[in-house]
Amino acid sequence: MNKKISNTLTYIVFLLLGVLLLWLCFRKIDFTQVVTYIKTAKYSWMLLSLACLGISLFFRALRWNILIESLGYKTRVSSTYESVLIAYFANIVVPRLGEVTRCGTLTKKENIPFDKSFGTVISERVVDLAVLFALAILVVLFQWNLLGSLVTSWLNPLIETLKANAALGIISLSALIVIFAAIVFIFKKKKSKIKENKLYQKVASLCKGFLDGIKTIFTMKRKGLFILYTFLIWGFYVVMTWLPFYMLSETAHLGLTEAITLLGLATLGFVAPVPGGMGVYHFIGILLLNGFYGISESAAVSFVTINHTSQMIFYLVTGCIAYAIMFFIDRRKPING
Question: pTM to 2 decimals?
């Protein structure tokens, strides 16, 4: 099957999944109550939340600069910030496109090799995943009475499945080791011929640039500043998630612990290959607020709808502005000639 057709079908499938989840979330909702909540919400808290989102993305751009500088390239903060904003805009349209767009725009603007900058983005993602994992552990520990039974209900079947299929797992791992060893043996035997192949040379060059980008996490000079920016990024994410609670009277009593929990689970919604996390974010948010924190279904639906819609508008507006500035207003020549 043609790759374009395959990608289009995949996009349509996940888009329909998002629509299905939205329908499941809204099908039994009293829209009269939802409209009332939306009309009476205190949107000043949402505006403060979006300001925190903008600041967190600015620190993300500053952190990215540190990794890029470790590669021996220079870039303007304005260029990296605009690239980050464009990336979030792209992710709304096509999931997973954001990181590619982010590196592509910076390559065009500042002449930084795409493969190397993409490697730095992977490094960032590894760090962010570690932070998210640490937050998940803290959330479970602080809310064990609430989440403990859920965690054990997930882990017990998984442990039993692993025990039951231990032999199959060992056989599969052994087979992978044998296949890997065979590939290494063949490569060593035909090394000179393989290296002459143009496709191999191109792939090897891309892999080298990619690995150089990933290595920046170990070779960067300003590690302390990188860690500080990481804390600031996630700190503003937490505050950004917490402030909207004050929009509605029913959610105003929720605090930072609940915000961290919602942030962690909501991130899964945005990571899902659905445009803008549509449906998945709503489903997770409503399940958490209604199922675990006892917020009425109408209030939960109103909260996630306002939150998600506001963020989508923010990404659309700032992404368009950033693109216009980067390619139509800012006429400065690339720093890396």
Answer: 0.81
